[in-house]
């Protein structure tokens, strides 16, 4: 009888110590989000800051779409400024085809910094993105902390029930 109880306790102990596979995936997702969200937020913050500095001095020129990747996912374009041809690419939901003329906005100090979107709009967009990604990161951490505390409380409850049921035969023997 006591051997059976020891076997049951060992099995329970082993199952408690080994995490289910979904906890491994949840941990991986947690670390990816925790590491990537601040990186994206910081990157967008500095992009917004750079675009806000360029916006007051930006100039525009006519450019040409030279190549479109994956049905409008990435647009390659070129434009000329002071007898020099510059090229760049931009992701976006534009509706252009190869050969279309577009307005290109650029920094006259560094014409390689160019876009088919006005730098005022880019600054506002990046500013919005870094705030959302940082807010999303905090929301994810809050939900994760709540789930973690619930999981720990449930684990303690199961341990107490397991110990109570394991000690029950001994309590009957004492009577």
Q: What this model shows, in words?
A:
The protein has 175 residues and is α+β, with helices and mostly antiparallel strands. It has two domains: 1-56 and 118-175; 59-117, no CATH class. Helix content is 61%, strand content 20%. The protein has helices spanning 2-17, 21-54, 119-174; strands spanning 59-69, 74-81, 84-91, 101-106, 114-115. It has a five-stranded antiparallel β-sheet, with no helix packed on it. A hairpin with a 4-residue loop joins β1 and β2 (74-81). α2 packs antiparallel against α3 (119-174). The longest helix has 56 residues, at 119-174. It is elongated and about 90 Å long. It starts with a helix and ends with a helix. The model has no long low-confidence stretch (mean pLDDT 79).
